Amino acid sequence: MVVKIVKTKLKYNKLETTPKNPENDTQPTHKPSIAALHGVPFAPFIDSMSIVVKVANDADQQSFYKSLHTELGNKEILLDNVRKLGWRFPRRLVLTNAMKTENFPILSWRVTAPTHDPSKAPEHDADGKNYNKHGQLIAGGRVREICLDLWPRAMTVGDFDLMYANLTCFVHQGFRYFHDHGKITKIEVSTDLANLKMAEIHVVPDITTTAKTWSKEGQIETIVLGKTNVGNSTRIYDRGKKRLDKGQVHPIYEGVRVERILRPKGLTLPTLAQLKNPFAGLAIVTLPSKPITEPKDYIWEMFTDTVKLRGLPAALKLLPEEKRAEYRKWFKSHGHPKWDATEIWNKWGAYLMYSGLFSKKQHTANALAAYLVKKTKLEKP
After folding, report:
1. Lowest mean pLDDT among 15-24, 136-145, 211-220
2. Higher-confidence residue: 338 or 5?
3. Of 196-205, 252-261, 363-372, where does mean pLDDT reach its minimum?
4. According to the model, what pLDDT value does residue 319 have?
């Protein structure tokens, strides 16, 4: 099947909204702040995600490679290549000029290149046979997989619309193809705790979870729980300090960000609303007063000084096993008043409605319906 693609030049600006079309109302006319979602100050959002499609259809494999061969050098829709291990031809999709280039989506491929000798097996991308002597991509290959890396938090309605348009230059259904056939291989779900500092919160890690802290000038700035390469880790850091190091000073950056980095199995865009609460079980607590089981004040004072300097996970490791279990239990009973994982996750479905990840009204309706059904079941006595 031959797919004819008609390219049009689209212009968007972050300060503009796309005209409303009653027959194809794909996006809300603006992105409300997360704080405005039903009056809840802390709500989850997707910081980044990777969607991978394995192209099984033979006609699609050829058609997508032909589009890649045609558009790879098109500077109007693709920026120069970036580094992405295990993938070929990684390029950033051009969006608005007002958006930071580092937040442009990345499109990358795994392909089977053609061979000049019919008696030989096709040359795969790993051996570098995709280019001719002039550095041009050889025609006649096949696309085996496509990966789309997104940073939804940084994108506006116009950015999403332009991304939808540009993706149709490479796959015939554009983003809809990723929606219907893609798997979410990595996702970072975050929430911001505004007007808080790292010194005001402490984290009680699971017994089997590794924990690391990074400090600067005697102040803890980052806590990492778990290993990121395993696909189930947590990163908690001071947003204000991070932005200050980049020369960005603004009140909106003040606070603590809690990030959950996941590599889920079987998660797709249609099932995104059914994602289990990644913040459940994360114990963020305050620094309590001395427990009644600790008779010596100076021991507790030394321990809390260590907590402030090295972090709670490192301080707990210094204790004998019995004392460690006692202190862990005491800290867990003093949850931080601004941390409620259940309440935060109750706004997941509302966030998805405004995330821009659903290009049609029906997609959003299906996702929200699944979320509401699940929520209703959980609330039944």
Report:
1. 15-24
2. 338
3. 363-372
4. 92
Calpha distance 183→193 (Å, rounded) = 30
HEC profile of the chain = CCCCCCCCCCCCCCCCCCCCCCCCCCCCCCCCCHHHCCCCCCCCEEEEEEEEEECCCHHHHHHHHHHHHHHCCCCCCECCCCCCCCCEEEEEECCCCCCCHHHCCEEEEEEEECCCCCCCCCEEHHHCCCECCCCCECCCCEEEEEEEEECHHHCCHHHHHHHHHHHCCCCCCCHHHHHHHCEEEEEEEEEEEECCCHHHCEEECCCCCCEEEEEECCEEEEEEECCCCCCEEEEEEEHHHHHHHCCCCCHHHCEEEEEEEECCCCCCCCCHHHCCCCCCCCEEECCCCCCCCCCCHHHHHHHHHHHHHHCHHHHHHCCCHHHHHHHHHHHHCCECCCCCHHHHHCCHHHHHHHCCCCCCHHHHHHHHHHHHHHHHHHHCC
Q: Is it the case that residue 12 has pLDDT exceeding 70?
A: no
Closest by Cα among 361, 370, 364 to 23:
361
- 2 pLDDT band, cuts 50/70/90, is very low
From the centroid of its chain, how far is CA 95? Answer: 18
CB neighbour list of residue 167: distance below 8 Å, 6 or more residues apart? 93, 107, 148, 174, 175, 177, 178
Residue 331, pLDDT > 90, answer yes
> Residue 350 CB: number of other CB atoms within 10 A?
19
